[in-house]
Structure formats: structure tokens, C-alpha cells
Design a protein that fits this description.
336 residues; alpha/beta; nine-stranded mixed β-sheet; two-stranded antiparallel sheet; 11 strands; globular; disordered C terminus; Alpha/beta hydrolase; hydrolase activity
Length: 336
């Protein structure tokens, strides 16, 4: 399990990363590192590592092509129990602690071998990598990581305020201890997923077994792990590198009008992302994208083009400064 092999995506290669026994007792863990094109033979190139969210895996070749056009060697990581990495008998996307992903992320960096790596995280992946970078900074181990891009990060629980109260958190912790793989939310009939896939109302093609239209079931153990991570974020972090957050400018109801789902975040409350964005660190740019979906780079053509333009504007500064200087010019975080 050490070499590169052809990936399911034409023109890509993949490398399974053996991670040892699952701390949650579901067998041996594997993560899968994917590379656009042939992996370079040396590690000095500027690289980007893409990390997906819940009910997701790497398939977004348009984003990869765009980043490659900006001079990055593009890698993506399918986390353990997700997409390419899920093995028989494993609960999809399940972990009882988001810090368990640190081993997979470290293994990916070791294989990439770049001295200048930009990290990208979407949704739950955005939460995962943000806390990971904070842990690395506190150990003075940020190493090759020189920037962070977050796409609609999962910074708080969407829904009624009672879900975020201390009594609810305590109850969730108790349920997670004894019923960690019990389902708290079943897959939906469609909603956001139907706005993405080409077989429904979207324009993208991907594996519906790895990314079901209605999502994977959400378990008590996983949501408790997310809630603990969010509470840590809310106390304030410092990822130690220049950061960009892209999000939609408004949220929509997933069960509402199919046309509205095409033009708003149907998964998270964007006001929560705005509220907690400042907890990431000091060198931060936040950009709302009008009419963007939850994944801003899977939006309709017009908001998607705006998202790429805003990414490029930030990258212009990031690429100019390089890993050894302080930071690119930053704008003040937006709060609405």
C-alpha cells in the first residue's frame, strides 16, 4: 500500500495510506491521497491539499484544474471511511473525535513532501483542518503549511437554538458514549444533493455510492465529535497562516423551492459562519459569494465564476509573498 496507482478519475493517481487500527474499533483505517497527473519526483513544488466534508469525497476536477493553472501541484485526501477509503464494515464518515484525522493529514503531508503547502477544507473538512492547524501551531509544527482556504466551514450547528445549549450538549455527550453509531438524522429525500448531480438538477458527475444525494445518516457519536470541535473553535484559535473563507451570502431552506436551493446555502446557516470566522486567527479574509451554494465551487456558473475570481484575488497575494514572509495584504473580516 505504498505506491501510486491509477485513480477512478482519468488523469489522476491515488496512493492508499495505511493508518493502523481504528481508535473507534472498526478495523484497519486507510486514507487515500489523490494527485492530479503524475506525482512529482521531488517535494519542492508548491502544493495544495484538498480536504472534503461530510457525505463527500474528492471528485472536483474543475477546482483542481483551476489550482493547477495557478501553479500548484494538486492533491486531495479522501479521509478514513470516506469515498475511496471506506472499507467493508465501517460506518460511513464515522469518528468519535475529529482529532483522529490528524494521522491521515500528517501522512498526506509526508507523502506530498512540499515545503510550501496550501490547505483547503470544505464544510466539515473546513472544521477539521482549522483545528488541526491550531494544534500544529501550538506544537510549533506547522512546517510546510503556508496558507488556508475554507469553503463554507462547519463552524456551528444549523437549526433551532436549543441544539446549541449546554443541556443539549450534555445529553448529546451521554448518548454518544453509549449509542455512538445510532442514527440521529436519517438521509433526506434529496434537497441540496439534487441541485448538484447531473442525474437530477445539477451539472456535476460523481459516485452516488460515495456521495449519496440524500446524504449519509448522521450518528450521535459523529455529531458529538463535531460539537466538541465547534466549542473549541468558539473559544478562539490561531491557525498561524494567512486564511481565506468563502461562503454564500445567504442561506435557504433545503426542503423549499428547488430553484431557491440552486442559489443559496441549503446546508449551513451562513450567519453562523460569519459569526465565528474571527475565531480562526488574525490574518483572515472573509468573502460572501452572492447566490452561492453550500459548496461555492459547485454553484451555478455565475456565482461559481465569482468564487474563482475571489480565490484568485487572494491567491495573487498569497503567491507573491511565499512561505517565508509574514502575510499577504488582508481585508477586514466581514460579519454579515
Amino acid at each position: 500500500m505504498t505506491g501510486w496507482e491509477p485513480d477512478v478519475l482519468p488523469g489522476y493517481r491515488q496512493r492508499p495510506l495505511a493508518l493502523g487500527a481504528d481508535p473507534d474499533g472498526e478495523g484497519e483505517l486507510v486514507a487515500t491521497l489523490v494527485c492530479r497527473g503524475e506525482p512529482p519526483h521531488r517535494g519542492g513544488e508548491r502544493a495544495v491539499l484538498l480536504v472534503h466534508g461530510y457525505t463527500d469525497y474528492f471528485f472536483h476536477t474543475e477546482l483542481a484544474d483551476h489550482l493547477a493553472g495557478r501553479g500548484f501541484t494538486v492533491y486531495a485526501l479522501d479521509l478514513p471511511k470516506c469515498g475511496r477509503s471506506r472499507r467493508e464494515g465501517q460506518t460511513p464518515h464515522f469518528t468519535s473525535d475529529l482529532a483522529h484525522y490528524d494521522t491521515a493529514l500528517r501522512a498526506a503531508l509526508d507523502v506530498i513532501g512540499s515545503t510550501d503547502t496550501l490547505v483547503y477544507g470544505h464544510s466539515a473538512g473546513g472544521l477539521i483542518v482549522t483545528l488541526w492547524l491550531d494544534r500544529l501551531r501550538r506544537r510549533n509544527a506547522t512546517g510546510p503549511i503556508s496558507g488556508l482556504v475554507l469553503n463554507s466551514p462547519f463552524f456551528d450547528l444549523h437549526g433551532p437554538a436549543i441544539l446549541r445549549t449546554p443541556p443539549t450538549s450534555a445529553a448529546l455527550m451521554a448518548l454518544a458514549r453509549f449509542r455512538r453509531t445510532q442514527v440521529v438524522r436519517k438521509p433526506t429525500p434529496g434537497g441540496y444533493g439534487t441541485s448538484l448531480h447531473r442525474d437530477y438538477h445539477g451539472e456535476f458527475e460523481y459516485n452516488l455510492e460515495w456521495k449519496p444525494v440524500g446524504g449519509f445518516p448522521v450518528t450521535f457519536g459523529w455529531i458529538n465529535a463535531v460539537r466538541r470541535a465547534q466549542k473549541r473553535l468558539h473559544r478562539g484559535l490561531d491557525v498561524g497562516v494567512p486564511s481565506l473563507i468563502l461562503r454564500s451570502d445567504h442561506s435557504v431552506t433545503e426542503a423549499g423551492d428547488p430553484d431557491l436551493i440552486q442559489r443559496g446555502d441549503a446546508v449551513l446557516d451562513v450567519t453562523q459562519i460569519a459569526r465565528w470566522a474571527g475565531c480562526v486567527g488574525n490574518r483572515l479574509t472573509v468573502v460572501p459569494i452572492p447566490d452561492a451554494k453550500h459548496d461555492v465551487f459547485l454553484s451555478l456558473a455565475q456565482p461559481r465564476s465569482v468564487a474563482y475570481r475571489e480565490l484568485d484575488t487572494w491567491l495573487d497575494g498569497y503567491l507573491r509573498t511565499g512561505p517565508t514572509t509574514t502575510s499577504p495584504q488582508q481585508t477586514s473580516p466581514q460579519t454579515g
